[in-house]
Design a protein that fits this description.
heterodimer, A: mainly beta, B: mainly beta, 6-stranded mixed beta sheet, 11 strands, 56% strand
Chain lengths: 114, 111
């Protein structure tokens, strides 16, 4: 089954404790992306990647890092989480970038930073 | 910078009627515009994509139009059903591989 998986689905952490949210897709997609969704602000793109070793900033990259060492994986790293990073995070992938093709979204990771 | 506005936060439509949702953008026209459905607590699900050189796209009860002069896309659900109740998001490309989303419209189909 074609899918995007994210782990963990729920995470409670404390300020400053480094964490990683994993994202994996099994569709051999070139393009992968991370979004955060907040009430009243909608979905905002954090980082995206056009291919292995090619990542770029979206609209809200501050406080986040990503890496793309393998085509299927695109982890999101919060080196020093802060309460304003409490949010619902979605990973997505598509065969082409820039909205040219369908984006498939993961189930989401709900993060609470205390 | 490019901005997107979706017509209203919430829309109530009687079952069986056509629901029409609006997505307006500023500045330059995107090469692609997409519509997604999102249910509470779940990831968005792709519905339709329309390209800048297309005026209209259909899929079953769904129709999307794209007017680059008005800088607007309309999303129609005909013969609406309570199961169509969800939040609908429009998204457009920034012509640089970035994607921006509107804040969404919560659609309620009333039985």
């Amino acid at each position: 089954e074609a899918q995007v998986t994210q782990n963990p689905r729920y995470l409670i952490t404390v300020t400053g404790k480094k964490l990683t949210v994993t994202c994996s897709q099994n569709m051999n997609h070139e393009y992968m992306s991370w979004y955060r969704q907040d009430p009243g602000l909608g979905l905002r793109q954090i980082y995206y990647s056009m291919n292995v070793e090619a990542t770029d900033k979206g609209d809200v990259p501050e406080g986040y890092k990503v890496s793309r060492k393998e085509k299927r994986n695109f982890p999101l790293i919060l080196e020093s989480p802060s309460p304003n990073q409490t949010s619902l995070y979605f990973c997505a992938s598509s065969s082409l970038g820039g909205g040219a093709e369908t984006q498939y979204f993961g189930p989401g990771t709900r993060l609470l930073v205390l | 910078s490019q901005k997107i506005e979706q017509n209203s936060e919430a829309l109530n439509i009687q079952e069986g009627k056509t629901a029409t949702l609006t997505c307006n953008y500023t500045n330059y026209s995107p090469a692609y515009l997409q519509w997604y459905r999102q249910d509470p607590g779940r990831g968005p699900v792709f519905l339709l994509l329309i390209r800048e050189n297309e005026k209209e796209k259909r899929k079953e009860r769904l129709k999307v139009t794209f007017d680059t002069t008005l800088k607007q896309s309309l999303f129609h659900i005909t013969a609406s059903q309570p199961a169509d109740s969800a939040t609908y998001l429009c998204a457009l490309d920034m012509r640089d591989d970035k994607i921006i989303f509107g804040k969404g419209t919560r659609l309620h189909i009333l039985p």
